[in-house]
Design a protein that fits this description.
Low-confidence stretches: 560-569
Largest sheet: 6 strands, mixed
CATH topology of the largest domain: Rossmann fold
Number of helices: 21
CATH architecture of the largest domain: 3-Layer(aba) Sandwich
CATH class of the largest domain: Alpha Beta
Strand content: 5-15%
Shape: elongated
Number of strands: 10
Structural class: alpha/beta
């Protein structure tokens, strides 16, 4: 029966699926640790039987069995290590999809989420499973058994072993109490430093052009110095603890040998038992010493586990939506309200509107009126919203995103292109259909421009399309939105960076889309595109103040001096 502990999170449940592998690791640890008694038994036989009998044959047979059992022990330890490595790889394979999806959802809900951290946490867990720290936790339970064998050799040395083991456990507990929080704080400070640099490199051009590098460098120095100070303090404490642990361990071994020698002098045990007890003491305390030396990786992997557990709990894997027919394109908003963290006044306030299928709707309004947020809500990427968004009468949440995605074309205000070829970006990094790619490029008027590149559609555009101009990025993003003739297109400021030729291509493309029965929602500040609108929506302060056929809305706005409004829109 599955313990309640493993019901608490998706990560714990995944670990529970590897219980058989961990069981076999325990079996191999049992074999290896039992056979660790081999040198003790060998010494007792040599000193107690061979030395007295002087039999070379007995020595040969005892030595043969020693080598044989050493071989089995080495084979068991190799199998244990190999199984842990394979378990770590399989755990990574089982979790990487969950971590990717949860990180995707987390970043979608908050751009402050560090996506790289989640994958680093997964790597930390996998590495800990395959390192010495994990083996130490499997070997530590055998410490009492070794001490029990010492008791058989000499009760006095057995009690001395318990005393030394308690000291080692005390050092382990002190290491946990003193260093755990310090290690976590040092790791957090280092992450803050790296995150600061990473966020600033995304905007490297204005940083360089406006001479901001010096000021940002000083801020990074402050964060980096703080992380170095915490890391130095943490490492200094860990090294002190390891030095103390090593001193105690070596002292214990020598004191055990001395105590055994005293017992031999008093005739209470043999010399072979004395040496065997010393070897057993060393073996009994070795896992505890290894736990102390690997405490930092343990703390880091535990912190990584808790972070991943929280991530997977807050952003669980989405269940696939129900199957639908290809959408016709009608969009209906009912009571749509959108908010943002730390903001009291909603960005969108109780919007109710219908965008008919096959029509072109143009949304205008002053900056800050909520137009871009409306676009994000329509395509289902705004996290903090209430109310409903319906596509063909079905809530957008009921659609499977992988099924719905090809039927939606979205051009955000901040265009993000990806490292790859022009064709791959237009094809949304799915399998490239050359005819569809060329069709989308021609529709946006960039086909001839692409052919002028050195490698045409196979030209690599670099990270975020860095080798392209603003207008080229916008037209490429527009071609991506139109790829595959989606039923719904939401275009946020599609002409913000376009020249006259690009503007003309956009108008022609929108007219073609309307003729093809596509639903187009176009957000703009330029009044010259109003001519293609069937429906005109005017927004102000998060509300829709006018909505209806274009000519009716323009006529209604004229008495209210709409010209200044349109100049901003």
């Amino acid at each position: 029966m599955k313990p309640d502990f493993f019901d608490r999170s998706a990560l714990s449940r995944q670990l529970w699926t590897f219980r058989r592998e961990f069981f076999w690791v325990g079996i191999f640890s049992l074999i290896a640790n039992v056979l660790m008694l081999t040198p003790t038994i060998y010494m007792l036989q040599v000193y107690g039987r061979v030395m007295k009998s002087g039999s070379e044959l007995t020595l040969l047979m005892v030595t043969f069995f020693l080598i044989f059992f050493y071989g089995i022990m080495a084979f068991a330890e190799w199998l244990r290590s190999r199984l842990l490595v394979r378990t770590g790889v399989r755990l990574d394979e089982a979790l990487n999809s969950l971590v990717f999806n949860s990180s995707f959802e987390a970043y979608l809900n908050s751009a402050r989420h560090n996506v790289v951290q989640a994958f680093s946490d997964l790597t930390n867990i996998r590495q800990f499973l395959t390192a010495n720290g994990m083996i130490a936790f499997f070997d530590t339970p055998w410490t009492p058994i070794y001490i029990a064998v010492i008791f058989l050799l000499s009760p006095f040395l057995g009690w001395l072993s318990i005393f030394f083991a308690v000291i080692q456990l005390g050092l382990t507990w002190q290491s946990h109490r003193l260093s755990t929080k310090e290690i976590e704080n040092a790791a957090d400070a280092g992450n803050d430093s790296y995150r600061f640099v990473q966020s600033k490199l995304r905007n490297i051009e204005p940083v360089h052009a406006m001479g901001m590098a010096g000021s940002l460098q000083q801020r990074w120095f402050m964060l980096h110095d703080a992380s170095l100070a915490k890391a130095d303090s943490s490492l200094d404490r860990q090294h002190r603890q390891q030095a103390v642990a090593k001193f105690v361990r070596y002292s214990m071994q020598s004191l055990t040998l001395g105590a055994g020698a005293l017992m031999v002098i008093e005739g209470k045990m043999s010399a072979g038992s004395m040496i065997a007890a010393n070897v057993l003491m060393s073996r009994a305390l070795q896992p505890l010493d290894l736990v102390i030396s690997t405490w930092k990786p343990f703390v880091q992997s535990r912190t990584a586990f808790l972070r991943l557990e929280k991530l997977l709990e807050e952003f669980p894997e989405r269940k696939p939506g129900s199957k639908h027919q290809d959408p016709l394109g009608e969009i209906r908003l009912e009571g749509l309200t959108a908010t943002a963290e730390g903001r009291e006044i909603p960005i969108l306030d109780d919007l109710c509107v219908v965008f008919p299928a096959g029509k072109v709707a143009v949304v205008i309004g002053p900056s800050g009126s909520g137009k871009s947020t409306l676009a994000r809500c329509i395509v289902g990427v705004w996290p903090d919203r209430k109310g409903d968004v319906f596509i063909d009468g079905e809530p957008i949440e009921s659609w499977d995103r992988l099924e719905l995605g090809p039927h939606i074309g979205y051009l955000p205000q901040d265009i993000e292109l990806f490292d790859g070829s022009i064709a791959e970006n237009i094809a949304r990094f799915a399998e490239v259909d050359s005819s569809k790619v060329i069709e989308a490029a021609k529709r946006t008027g960039i086909h001839e421009m692409i052919l002028r590149f050195p490698h045409g559609y196979n030209t690599q555009i670099g990270e975020a399309g860095g080798m392209l101009s603003g207008g080229q990025r916008q037209r490429l993003g527009l071609a991506r939105a139109m790829y595959g003739n989606p039923a719904i297109l939401v275009l946020d400021e599609p002409n913000a960076n376009l020249d006259e030729a690009g503007d003309r291509s956009l108008l022609e493309a929108v007219v073609d889309l309307r003729k093809a029965g596509k639903t187009v929602i176009l957000i703009t500040h330029r009044p010259n595109i109003l001519g293609v609108a069937d429906l005109l929506v005017v927004m102000q302060a998060g509300k829709i103040i006018r909505c209806g056929p274009r000519d009716e809305v323009l006529l209604a706005l004229r008495p209210a001096s709409v010209k200044p409004e349109l100049s901003e829109a």
